[in-house]
């Protein structure tokens, strides 16, 4: 039995979606379960020529043998969820907990203007206002909606039972460590704790049941919206380096900076990381594109990875070398 938690180590958009879809296929977990905030998250997954942009469904849905679930701590936009289940053909194996909070029109309206939008640079997805209503104990939950009844399952019971039966469970976080409401760059953060402990609380998995925590870092740092970003590059310099990216949910240009060892060290601590995943190595070292073996990397790329391992005292086990699900170096064994 292995429970593996995957979380972002910087400000989200580290490429977790692709790493999770790789693990979902490779490790064949029985259940892939999502914690985190809500549809403010966006994961891009490429399978061959097909590109999926997911906001609600767990990114591991590419494994057709797995059940995908959303934990009770997550707020759901039912329209987005139902559309993704249909469009990505995940019908019959997608489930939510009865206690998932539901985003309604009023939350979308509150999120599209004012402080949240202008000062914090929120995604406008209604996630923050829905979580605020939840704290006030007025938010409606999934169990209050007849239209969602066929999706409801007891998520904490299902995942704990699967682990008791020696099955693998893959747990996916959203956003990144420094967008955490507790540990991030407050007030420029999301409306939840999104570190590994928070993600586990979202899905109902106790701390003694966690085996592996993989913290995902991109080879450089990006941030969308406002808030501090140390050593931020000008948009022009970011573009020159090939680091100009655009958000999956909002389409906004992401701000960029070099890999930040101080942030990374703190992320390792806050999440209790047992492993590190580094994504987009091919963006730093184009000669590494599509490589699947560490030995085939260039010396510069090897040095970059080894330096991370030495400075952070944690093994880099999974390395992304391209956008496709199989552009991965897996050094876990
Ligand atoms: P909110 O969670 O929509 O309120 O946004 C709060 C801050 O977190 C803003 O700076 C957003 O850009 C950022 N944010 C929220 N979700 C994500 C994500 O999934 N990836 C990257 N940034 C995010
Ligand atoms: Mg994203």
Describe what you observe in this structure.
The protein has helices at residues 16-26, 78-87, 105-111, 114-120, 127-135, 155-164, 196-203, 235-240, 261-271, 281-284, 299-312, and strands at residues 3-8, 31-34, 43-47, 50-54, 67-70, 75-76, 94-96, 101-102, 169-172, 212-218, 220-223, 255-258, 275-279, 316-320, 328-330. The chain is an alpha/beta fold and 333 residues long. It has one domain: Adenylosuccinate Synthetase, Chain A, domain 1. The strands form four sheets. The protein has a nine-stranded mixed beta sheet, with helices on both faces. Helix 3 (105-111) crosses helix 5 (127-135). The radius of gyration is 19 Å and the shape is globular. The structure holds inosinic acid and magnesium ion (MG). The site of magnesium ion has 6 residues, from loops.
What layout of secondary structure does this protein have?
Layout: E1 3-8, H1 16-26, E2 31-34, E3 43-47, E4 50-54, E5 67-70, E6 75-76, H2 78-87, E7 94-96, E8 101-102, H3 105-111, H4 114-120, H5 127-135, H6 155-164, E9 169-172, H7 196-203, E10 212-218, E11 220-223, H8 235-240, E12 255-258, H9 261-271, E13 275-279, H10 281-284, H11 299-312, E14 316-320, E15 328-330
Parallel strand pairs: 1-9, 1-10, 2-5, 2-9, 5-7, 6-8, 10-13, 13-14
Antiparallel strand pairs: 3-4, 11-12, 14-15
Helix pairs in contact: 3-5
Bound molecules: inosinic acid and magnesium ion.
């Amino acid at each position: 039995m292995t429970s593996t938690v995957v979380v972002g180590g910087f400000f989200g958009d580290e490429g977790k979606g692709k790493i999770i879809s790789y693990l979902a296929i490779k490790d064949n977990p029985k259940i892939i379960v999502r914690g985190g905030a809500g549809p403010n998250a966006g994961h891009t997954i490429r399978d061959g020529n097909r590109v999926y942009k997911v906001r609600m469904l767990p990114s591991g849905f590419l494994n057709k043998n797995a059940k995908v679930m959303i934990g009770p701590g997550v707020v759901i936009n039912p329209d987005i969820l139902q559309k993704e289940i249909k469009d990505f053909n995940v019908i019959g194996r997608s489930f939510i907990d009865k206690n998932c909070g539901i985003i309604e029109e009023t939350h979308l309206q509150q999120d599209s203007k004012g402080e949240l939008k202008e000062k914090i640079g929120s995604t406008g997805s209604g996630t923050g206002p829905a979580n605020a209503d939840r704290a006030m104990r007025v938010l409606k939950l999934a169990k209050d909606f007849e239209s969602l009844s066929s999706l409801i399952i007891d998520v904490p019971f299902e995942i704990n039972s699967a682990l008791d039966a020696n099955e693998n469970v893959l747990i996916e976080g959203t956003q990144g460590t420094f967008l955490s409401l507790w540990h991030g760059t407050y007030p420029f953060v999301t409306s939840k704790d999104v570190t590994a402990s928070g993600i586990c609380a979202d899905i109902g998995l106790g701390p003694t049941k966690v085996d592996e925590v993989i913290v995902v870092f991109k080879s450089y740092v990006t941030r969308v919206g406002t808030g501090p970003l140390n050593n931020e590059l000008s948009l022009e310099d970011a573009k020159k380096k090939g680091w100009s990216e655009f958000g999956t949910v909002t389409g906004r240009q992401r701000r960029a900076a070099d890999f930040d060892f101080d942030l990374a060290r703190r992320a390792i601590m806050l999440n209790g990381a047992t492993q590190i995943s580094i994504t987009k190595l091919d963006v730093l070292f184009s000669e590494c594109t599509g490589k699947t073996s560490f030995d085939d990397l260039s010396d510069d790329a090897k040095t970059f990875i080894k330096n991370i391992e030495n400075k952070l005292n944690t093994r880099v086990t999974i390395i992304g070398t391209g956008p496709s699900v199989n552009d991965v170096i897996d050094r876990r064994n």
